[in-house]
Amino acid sequence: MTQLQQPATTGPGTESPAPSVGQLTFQWAAGPAIPVLSVAIALVIGAVFVLLSGNDPVAAYSALVQGAFGTPYDITETLVSAIPLVLTGLAVAVAFRTGLFNIGAQGQLLVGALAAGWAGAQFATLPGFLLMPIVILLGITGGAFYGGIVGLLKALRGVNEVITTIMLNYTIVFVMHWLLQAGPMTAQNAFGTPASTPIGAGARLPVIIPNELVLFSRLHAGIFLAALAVVVFWFLLWRTPLGYQLRAVGLGARAAAQAGIDPALHMVLVMAIAGGFAGLGGMIEVSGVFGRVYDGFSSSYGFDAIAVALLGKNSPLGIVFAALLFGAFVHGGAYMQSHAGISSNLVAIIQAFVLFVIAAETLVRSLTRRRHGRKPVEAIA
Amino acid sequence: MTWEMLVGASVLAATLRLATPIALAALGGTMSERSGVVNIALEGSMLVGCFFGVVVADRSHNIWLALAAALLAGLLLAALHAYASITLRADQIVSGMALNILALGLTTYLDYEMYGTTGTPSDLVAVPDLHLTFLNGIPYVGTAIGDQNWIVWVGLLLVAALQVFLFRTVLGLRWRAVGEHPRAAETVGVNVRRMRYAAVLASGALAALGGAYLSLGVAHSFTDGMTGGRGFIGLAAMIFGRWTPVGALGASLIFGYGNALSTSLQGATVGGVRLPVQLLGTLPYILTILAVAGFVGRSRAPAADGLPYETEGHA
Amino acid sequence: MKRILAFSLLAATIVASCASTSTGTPQASGSSPTGQHLKIGLVTDIGGLNDKSFNSLADQGRQQAQAQLLVVTSVTESKQQADYVPNLTKYAQDKNDLVIGVGFLMQNAIWKVATQFPNVKFAIIDGAPTDDAGAVKNLPNVANLFFKEQEAGYIVGVIAATMAKNKVGAAIHNTVCSMGGLPIPPVDRYIAGYQDAVKTVSPTTKILNGYSQDFVDQQKGIEIGKSHIAQGCDILFQVAGGSGLGYIQAAKAAGVYAIGVDADQAAVAPGTVITSALKKVDVAVFQTIRSVRLGTFKAGDNSFNATNDGIGFGTVDAIVPADAKAAATQALADIASGKITPKDTVQVK
Description:
Chain B is mainly α. Chain B has 14 helices and four strands. By secondary structure, chain C is an alpha/beta fold.
């Protein structure tokens, strides 16, 4: 597990060292058929499960699609569900790209949320043009700090990041319980709901769809932050010397040393960057959706993110598409349960098959009669 | 805070109980990764082990059948992982994640369909505790190990046996060779593919034994998601223990001790200040990080860990 | 991944109570003439349908209504806190007559959606509509369904104290215990009532309390249980959902007694579970649906307590002596008549 050279190099989207946006689009769209076909196969397997459970697969899937995209409201809700997954997906992917397995996006997101929630409440009276940058900065810094610990322990003491990220995920859950139930951040709430003090108006990300267009939409300005983060991810990794160095570290200490890079420093840096993405995701949920931090508000963004990153082949656009797919599962799945009577656990089962079939892409490749020309070890350009 | 709270016999007994499922998962992970296959579906194998053990215990009223079903369920889930990662050379992390999600979705779904409103029956057959009556009079030891579950002892035996197997037998040497230099192992006549299949299947069964311990040994029932991430903690324990069975046990014990402390220290005061119960929950995790950072540090995975192996005919 | 790594969700037994003076006014239901099927939607919190606690109880109430009243019902499980608003909104958009949210985690979401759909009726279990600042804002289309769990805790506490005092059966150490999931007020109110009863009925009885720090993990509940039993506890009251099932199991393994929570848990371990502190969420859901049917829907606070059979105690095991059972019945009556007002803050932490 330590080396993990390979997980970052699983697909066509990862082989070119410096793709342009155009190339990336092309690659993901052309490398292509594979993810799309995988989803299709997974849906067929899912249909069998739905049948076995005594339900009608056609009704189930049409409810799923209708639930996710049936009305303008649903489309905006699917987007709302996808936003945190994009950010945590980037957090996992940037680490994968540099050869690290970041299971800790969940914890990093929570720390970012707590930091942003603290600042948003602490300086609630500040005007938006001052407060918003502070809150964004603290969200990113909080996540970066929590991710940075992982990099630091790895650089200084060689502690495997899988251990630290798992342990830190749990640690923050209990710290959060304390902070929001009986600690310094706990607000007086109706009937003891464990949560922090509401953030100031200047810290709220506004809803960007007017009611005249889509009634009661929650789609907030966080979507621009997410889009910006995707661009930053691409630019950082493929358009800066630092990005080149980070990817070199990902290919192993020796390659990095040859390129004159200090691997220790870069481990810290990359985990801080990863944490920053996830922390921003936490900040966006607090500022865009809740207006405060609720205890345990996220139980799975950071874990779904691993699936999102891998499904998206760690490429910027791939992650966006994968997050949208998962967002659609989340929002459409609820409708599928209420309208087709399909257990929400069947949605999880279908999601699992999507992932599994994508993992086993040779199976899909053989179906499409493509040759798998993947090299066992990726060369650095 | 008293010494009794920190190192009392009951704390030690709790440590052993809490470490066992994690150690079994870690043992599974060790066996798999020593052969070069990363198996993060340990959590999933544990969970299906928990569930199907209970289902068969309920239907058959035979504990041996129940245990067999638990192990078989874990093994079957691992077989999917083996097929994906060895035969299809799939991405092992993705496949493992997928199977974890599958296991959770499937067991939660079936649990609701089968036992939803009432819960699993109260009269399940279970794996009993082993009462070592000859230890009764002995202070400390009697309390610490006198009433542990059979699976705790089986787990300890497995640790010893697999340590010897991996590092003292020819087959064990081959097992590790496949994880370090599959090409070289193949040249001297080891069937890499078959060895890896065996390893992954074994890892699923070992993790499922950990699951069976939870449901059939400890809780005597099933609740959704009852493994609560122990498979992932086991993964950490495997790395912490440097991919050796004995190391994995040691790491699990440290974690189990932290967990035992978070129970025993409830209500304790330090310098007159009461420890917040929420923060006590962080103990096992922080203790593990400190232990790894302080004493263990760098650990090296088997060289071919996570790399699909392509035989000549395939490449 | 959902709950694989998803720690203790603030789900299971979470509850809230309040001083419930009725502020709402009965509201005539003009929307659905009798004889036509009403549409009812239920939204669970993140604990999901199978939490063996208030979500599953609420769903039982829904199914009972479906079977007995002229209503069409459906249910949606929420997977994350962010799902509450869209899940409630979808039901409102689909022109349901009543949308029920389970759990106080949904208070703000109910407020948001109910203000947007003033013509749809809503109900929330264990809470009231709460604005963005965290202040309660009662709405004319929202029924707040509250339970006084300290009353239920008190009644089972009377049974425990009576048995401990008289050293009945395995209860020989004059020590009783409780375990919550986390020390949050809704859980603590059960424990507060329980301790209040013990202190009142049997002042010499020793009381211990602990937390599993989790609402799912059974092994953690077992460990707290073993630790309590080692300290002499022989009656254990769980307020920790799935984790609490482990607490009961610890009692069963040691041959001592346990008390269930929320639902009647006698079947979990017959002979071990001496009774359960009941919070009749199913009754509340059923009655609220029926009130819409009958046109007697009442917005604002609806308290479910000892006076209206909203709380109570479950099946009493044969080991419980008649005097303990009688004392519990008497306590229930005294609470209903206002003679006893159980405390709602924990005394023995």
